[in-house]
Amino acid sequence: MTKASDVFTLKNNNQVEVTFIARGGQITSIKVPNANGEMADVVIGYDTVEGALAGDTYFGAICGRYANRIVKGQFELNGQEFQLDTNNGPNHLHGGVDGFNLRTWEVEKVDLPQFAQAYKLSLVSSDGDQGYPGELTTIVTYGLTEDNELVIEYDAVSDKDTIINLTSHAYFNLDGAGTGTIANHQLTINADKFTPIDGEIGTVTGEVAEVKDTAMDFITTKAIGEALTADCPQVKLVDGIDHNFVINGYDGMVRLAARLEGPSSGRAMEVYTDQPGVQIYTGSHFDGTEIGKQGKPIEKWAGVALETQIFPDSPNKAHFPEAVLKAGEHYRHTCVYKFI
């Protein structure tokens, strides 16, 4: 049996090293070189396993069964009403009070030809867990390639019709954790549209809006800080960005969703996915009270999460991408973080 504190590491021949723990499949460290070979840990978090277990449980974790928010924790499926935990004001967030980020996953090393190293993480969620129907068996593969790609592959199957939306919740700072904010990071998002949020609802309204002429326009590369300080109602609602972007050309195939660059370090990261959306969150709730890596306070905007996923509240929005998983069918989701 895997223990919550068990540590696992993936390495390739380019010195890239990814470390995670069994609790939540939580990615605790990603060390990558820049063009000069200088190494840095590019995910924010804690220096020790003990710190990770005691700290913010979303850092680097697998979130589910339904990542992001469901309004009032309610949805209807096959004519039946379901009530989930409400753990984010009036809404359900990231699977509830005991979501997948808090579960100890079974972990085993696997040999797959496409990866330098890989691990398989597995978890069984019982029928009725956090209010969800169906016993859900989930397998997540973490694979590291020799092309410096961290590939996350999700596969899940349920014995009853259910809803699902899994994601990984690492926060990136390509200059290195503890080096300051991501305000100077350059961001490009392959999205002409986004889903605005409403302060009273606490999540998306159901509208799909153009990014053009808003702070959410990252079609052309710009500094994240330009959006963070914009006189924009959507930014002011969350003191930054916590929005779902609609990936252009979605057809269920893996495509480029976003590119992040740390100009101080010269490191860059591309994000690829077969999902319809990517949630960009700039960590506005960090307030410096927690001590993170290098003994530095985790300050507001210390890192940015790029979470590939189905849209928030999709079970209640008929025009949003489908979040229903039929009994016996497989949910599959690929996310690639490629370091350059």
UniProtKB/TrEMBL annotation:
A Pfam match: Aldose_epim
GO MF assignments: aldose 1-epimerase activity; carbohydrate binding
Cofactor(s) this protein cannot do without: Ca(2+)
Domain of life: Bacteria
Annotated family: Belongs to the aldose epimerase family.
Record CDD domains: galactose_mutarotase_like
Keywords: Calcium, Carbohydrate metabolism, Isomerase
Catalysis performed (reactions): alpha-D-glucose = beta-D-glucose
A single Gene Ontology CC term: cytoplasm
Name recorded for this polypeptide: Aldose 1-epimerase
UniProt source species: Carboxylicivirga sediminis
Active-site feature positions: H169, E307
Assembly and binders: Monomer.
Calcium as UniProt keyword: yes
Keyword field contains Nucleotidyltransferase: no
GO biological process, one term: glucose metabolic process
Family annotation (PANTHER family): ALDOSE-1-EPIMERASE, GALACTOSE MUTAROTASE
Sites where the protein binds beta-D-galactose: N68, R69, H169, A170, Y171, D242
Pathway terms, separated by semicolons: Carbohydrate metabolism; hexose metabolism
Annotated EC: 5.1.3.3
